[in-house]
Amino acid sequence: MLWYLSLRTLLFDRGKLLTGLVGVVFSVILVNVQGGLFYGLISKASYLVDRSQADIWVGSYQMHNVDFPHDVPARWLQRIRSIPGVAEADPIRIGFSEMSLPDGGHEGVTVVGIMRDSSLGRSFEVIQGNPQALADPLGIVVDECDDEKLQYPALGEIREIGGKRTRVVAKSRGVLSFLVTPYVFTTLDRAADFIGSDRTLVSYFLVRTVPGANKAEVCREIDRRLPSATAMTAQDYANVSINFWTTRTGIGLSFGAAAGLGLLVGLVMVGQTLYAMVLDRISEYATLKAIGATEREIITLLTLQSATIAIVGICLGTVLSFLIGLLLSTPRTTIAIPAMLYVGSGLLVFTICLLAAGLPYLRVRSVDAHTVLQGS
């Protein structure tokens, strides 16, 4: 009975119902898209880790960001390979340099050097050019999404990085740095030349463990044998890298504020809609109270109205959020909305809508049924 009454009340004034639904849909879309943009952006901070195909990263003591390594001795490699549970370990070198441009200018790049025949650290997938790009004596791999920054390098084109000749032999797609500097992939030795690094030093060691090995125990053993190093599982180091940017910049705060603003707008619109409906039908609520409706039934009626608006609005907002992510997401502006964000935003908006039912209830509760009916 109350379900039927609440639905009839909502449908009686479709204009106000539409206003409430717009508020909820807007809130859901804003939270999901803002969250998806934030997740898509911040996930680039751990891109090299996530796609390294390594189980463990070993670097300098208290390493905190994959793009800002502190060099460690290359001679540690054999000691890491001798640790029980380690199936494979290879070094990787990461550093900054500048690439020459056709117009005479230069563009800063992040050089990533890996072992030529190793699968560890190979974060790119060649979509143009030579799949065995690193076998070329001068070969580098750049990303086609950075073409504009690098002034559209053609396959086979000669450039200079750090004053050393090199050749663009392949391109990947979607391997974008969280920083503004494009990634350039090459071999370990060529990377040392490009960034002017000492060849006895590397940035990290990437470790693949044997099947069934306890990665945490392997990390502890590496830390014990190399007190000046830090070993983390790939998942842990990805989280550390993301946390670095989230806590040391205003990114988390700015995105959180925008999402919070969306929720606030939705709350205000739903509350205002329900409040206006109650004011328009104050005599009807007074009648309900006069014929014996309890306070519990009144608040239940208002809660059902809020729940109806919330459920319909959340469903529409979720579908529209998915379509926005599907149609507008690009490698450079990624909208990656995790399933948990859909669920979390839906539950949050639903809870806020239920709380919004309290506003009109306060108005109905103060109504004297006899006074209203006599004046009607």
TrEMBL record:
Pfam families: FtsX, MacB_PCD. Coiled coil: none annotated. One of its GO terms (cellular component) is plasma membrane. It is found in: Cell membrane. InterPro entries: ABC-4/HrtB_transporter, ABC3_permease_C, MacB_PCD. The chain crosses the membrane at residues 20-42, 251-278, 298-328, 340-362. The keyword Transmembrane applies. It is a multi-pass membrane protein. Residues 258-367 form the ABC3 transporter permease C-terminal domain. Keywords: Cell membrane, Membrane, Transmembrane, Transmembrane helix, Transport. Residues 21-223 form the MacB-like periplasmic core domain. Its main location: membrane. This is FtsX-like permease family protein. It comes from Aureliella helgolandensis.
